[in-house]
């Protein structure tokens, strides 16, 4: 997983007065050192604000809450540190009065079996249970470390903290994401219908635009325009152009300019585009290359106006720090019940396609003319880690739901065209039963990571979405 740091995290160091003071001071130093190593900015009380910078009394909780309020725009999560039993009310009151609605991670120190005397005893094992009990009573959501008690210098805690930072990114990003829906969904694809209202209730905004506006703006541009020349240079630098005629590359560049202008004007994080058949019939090329370039540059773009598909791409991108791709659950792989073929015609980010070439879309070409489908990409995804999943609005239930899981992309032979990959997933047949039984789309999202746990914690615990984790 990519190391995405530079987060700002609020820190609450719990204390209980009849435990040794030195434990709080030591914890504060350890956390500051660890945050420095991981490029995390701490927001925490100083030892001049309260006794050793800890939080125990209501007055100290108010001081810490006020500090968090001052930095509310930058704090992405809260780390609760328990060097001793701690004061459960002080922790809960701090979070409550801060007004922050961010992920919370609870860490508690382990006792040393050889130091169970009054001078060194911590009892944080017990204190953590009490803190969690109070947070539960207050209705505050929180995350747990892999080990119930763990030192901040332990490798498992460092991994937990990095995963927590990813959870913070996902939760923050999903609560304010802005998606552009370009054109109408293909008429034959009821499968990509979704509820804008349910998404908006969850903080997800959708900005729509008629495809004719984008094509109209693209047609106003010429090959001599500087913006088109710059896009054309980026296209040549991005992928081999194969047999694609120069005039079609110019068409692709003009369309890319129009899409970029639309995204900039509306401050969009992602797009879902009407990629067929109006585009080919009325403009004369595919938009796949532009979509691939956007996804590679962390502005995910999904085909067939699959808005919740691109939302899934964005979530996985936030979790992993790497691009995602929208794919079809497309074919069986011979008679291997654990493998299947993932396919699109295709617009996958370059990260998935080391042999990327700009080409045509043969299947689509049978109905709109292959000469009108230049811009589709050809390339095979090699073996790499796989996290897959899908977010969907269930309009009948009025909810957002999701499924996620992990597997592997393999190097098994696959003689076909377009963007393609072979996936191996444990109990794949059971997964397909779940997808079909619960009315999910034929589109799924893949990401070259192992981040299902991060997504589950984000979706289920903090966003309140019904989430199935396969396997």
UniProtKB/TrEMBL annotation:
<feature type="domain" description="L-fucose isomerase C-terminal">
    <location>
        <begin position="342"/>
        <end position="468"/>
    </location>
</feature>
<dbReference type="InterPro" id="IPR009015">
    <property type="entry name" value="Fucose_isomerase_N/cen_sf"/>
</dbReference>
<dbReference type="InterPro" id="IPR015888">
    <property type="entry name" value="Fuc_isomerase_C"/>
</dbReference>
<protein>
    <submittedName>
        <fullName>Fucose isomerase</fullName>
    </submittedName>
</protein>
<keyword id="KW-0119">Carbohydrate metabolism</keyword>
<dbReference type="GO" id="GO:0006004">
    <property type="term" value="P:fucose metabolic process"/>
</dbReference>
<dbReference type="GO" id="GO:0008736">
    <property type="term" value="F:L-fucose isomerase activity"/>
</dbReference>
<keyword id="KW-0413">Isomerase</keyword>
<dbReference type="Pfam" id="PF02952">
    <property type="entry name" value="Fucose_iso_C"/>
</dbReference>
<dbReference type="GO" id="GO:0005737">
    <property type="term" value="C:cytoplasm"/>
</dbReference>
